[in-house]
Amino acid sequence: MRPFHHPHLQGLEVWQGIARHATLDQLRHNKPVYFAGLDEFLSELHAGSAQTAAGDPLAPAAGFERLLLAGGDAAEAAAALRWPNHLAAPGAFALRAGAETIWREQGWRNPIAIDLGQTRLKILTPHDSRAIERDEAHLPFGPRALPEAKGRARLRDWLHSHLPAEYDGVLLALPNAIDATGAAESSTYPGLYGPVEPLFDDLFANAPVIYGNDAILTARGYPPANHEKTLLLTLGFGVGAALWY
């Protein structure tokens, strides 16, 4: 297994971005307020004054020239935002263009992509896309909702039960920030944090595996045509971001 890297692409932790005296994550249950807050946050992000509750670095996004929207809430957000935007990939399978780009770069002939969303698992192949809903009773929300070992075992079993019989490469998109050492920061899945390789070690039948943050892997499918600084937002359970620079 190895983490995905691209010299002109980086992730941004915006889900805790501050808008209207709250975080974007706290606003997301009220769509009109959420989109209005996101609009304000984007203006501050462009101006270089945006902040997150955790103090995440956002300065690289200042002055972004293009905004792309992807994910299940992308179409609704595109219509609601005042900030100029382009609808890149609406719907549950926003990862497909990025997955297909990486599959080609790797020369895989029978690949799969696994997009572990916060509420659904998506499995993509060159010819098929399917989504499986998360069972909250089996995999409850909260990184410590179950003992670590039990949470990891249940997650592995869930993934394994939906893998195809044969594949020659795996792209694994995770709902976590991935640090420079290849470790995942926390997510809503019990036990899904820390070094990624030990989490999944022998799960993928000895096929090569590339893993990364879902927003970054999605953005790989939408490189800027004229080298514009481009911000891609993934809008679904929450909001993720990746920046072309």
Task: Report on the architecture of this protein.
There is one protein chain. The model has no long low-confidence stretch (mean pLDDT 96). The two termini are 26 Å apart. This protein has 2 domains: 9-91 and 228-244, no CATH class; 93-216, ATPase, nucleotide binding domain (Nucleotidyltransferase, domain 5). The protein has 7 helices and 15 strands. It is globular and about 45 Å long. Helix content is 26%, strand content 27%. By secondary structure, it is α/β, with parallel strands linked by helices.
Based on Cα principal axes, name the global outline: globular
The chain-level mean pLDDT equals 96
* Uncertain regions spanning at least 5 consecutive residues: none
What is the rounded Rg? 17 Å
Q: Could you name the CATH topology of the largest domain?
A: Nucleotidyltransferase, domain 5
List the strand order in the largest sheet: 1-13-10-7-8-9
Q: Counting H and I runs of at least 4 residues, what is the number of helices?
A: 7
Cα distance spanning the termini: 26 Å
N to C succession of SSEs: EEEEHHEHEHEEEHEEEHEHEE
Helix amount: 25-40%
Biggest sheet layout: 6 strands, mixed
Report the structural category. Answer: alpha/beta
> What percentage of the residues does DSSP assign to strands (E)?
25-35%
Report the CATH architecture of the largest domain.
2-Layer Sandwich
User: Total number of β-strand segments?
Assistant: 15
What's the structural domain tally?
Answer: 2
Q: Considering the protein shown, what is the CATH homologous superfamily of the largest domain?
A: ATPase, nucleotide binding domain
